[in-house]
Design a protein that fits this description.
- Two copies of one chain form a homodimer.
- The first copy, chain A, is an alpha/beta fold.
- The first copy, chain A, folds into two domains: 74 residues, Arc Repressor Mutant, subunit A, CATH 1.10.10.10; 112 residues, 3-Layer(aba) Sandwich (Rossmann fold), CATH 3.40.50.720.
- The first copy, chain A, is 41% helix and 19% strand.
- Chain A contains eight helices and eleven strands.
- In chain A, the strands form two sheets. The first copy, chain A, has a seven-stranded mixed beta sheet with strand order 6-7-5-4-8-9-10. Chain A has a two-stranded antiparallel ribbon with strand order 2-3.
- In chain A, α5 links the parallel β4 and β5.
- In chain A, α1 packs across α4.
- At the A-B interface, β1, α1, α5, β10 and α8 of A face β1, α1, α5, β10 and α8 of B.
- β1 of chain A pairs parallel with β11 of chain B.
Chain lengths: 221, 221
Amino acid sequence: MGDKILKIDKLPTVRRLPAYLRLLKVFSSQGIDTVSSGQLAELMGIESILVRKDLELTGISGTPRIGFRISDLIRSIESFLGWATSTDAFLFGVGQLGTALLGYRELGQSGLKIIAAFDTDSDKLNRTFNGVRVFHVDKAPELLSRLNVQLAILTVPPEHAQQVTDLLVMNGIQGIWNYTPVSLEVPEGVTVQKEDLLSGLAVLSVRMSRAVVSQRCEEGS
Amino acid sequence: MGDKILKIDKLPTVRRLPAYLRLLKVFSSQGIDTVSSGQLAELMGIESILVRKDLELTGISGTPRIGFRISDLIRSIESFLGWATSTDAFLFGVGQLGTALLGYRELGQSGLKIIAAFDTDSDKLNRTFNGVRVFHVDKAPELLSRLNVQLAILTVPPEHAQQVTDLLVMNGIQGIWNYTPVSLEVPEGVTVQKEDLLSGLAVLSVRMSRAVVSQRCEEGS
């Protein structure tokens, strides 16, 4: 589904896809077969034309009067995101946020499986958090290559972020989900997704003081 | 700065503003006075025309050859976001994610101050986490009105999310930063910002398999 190029203005759509997936799986578990863009729009709190555009990006369109087949939609979204199969990941930094992510059941929705965690604090080594064992960071290179892990979640203190990143890059990491406030330097070919917890707060702050209106731009697509 | 209406396609800009603020404060602490859009673009990993558009939204434009005065920029962004003054908040649900947010020093950047936390677990009541005391949720109505708190962070288990929300709404809450996967029902006038940890992972997944290209649309602004 979809080609190998994605326009940057489609990223807000991508950000919404997990929420669709969550709703669709609830419907599916309730034995519901079809859903309309109007129903999804209401539950998502957005307009139904936006729902249709969002879902079209994954390569699916609804049928008039019937709507979308839920099983098709789930398949289409999961395939677009690459979440249809599971992905192993390592987590670096078992602090408060790291522990929270280790305990975040919803991650399973994405097929992401944290199979090991790393820290340097001797109090944490060899303990398990939600079934995930903590190793010393010195063990990471060996385990990265042995288990062929391509994705890392970074929840280390900011002052260690670049150093751990360099270690990951040297050992073939492909993607880093960066929860530190540091802008990491990585070579081309390595994807970093920076998670800024303050982004959502910025949007909330602005929405509390202003009306946000939708205004679509012509995309010729 | 800015009028009382914000176009929805400006929200990606709003999401980036905290990252600018973070960089600018680092520059400022190093005694640097001015910065160019090119420098900011490089550090943010985006194009400099996008930097200029982002900053224009807050009501500021740079001077050719000189760039932006950092102190002006900080003021402009903080004023746009309403972060120039501090905001008190309550946190509901002192689980792993709640604890992580209580320990998240960066929140202070936004002026957000969590002044109390609430739970129902007797093991947590009256304890303090990072200096924030945990009260039973039954005390929330009294404290909400007494302290005139208008913002709540919701990190309760999904099955309690709507019930706690109803309690908050009844007691005059204006904004809810919702970390649960539940689509909350609130009356008009209450702003909910849903934080979906899977959104970032969706973007990462897509970016690992595709080239993301920028394509600006005409906005006539």
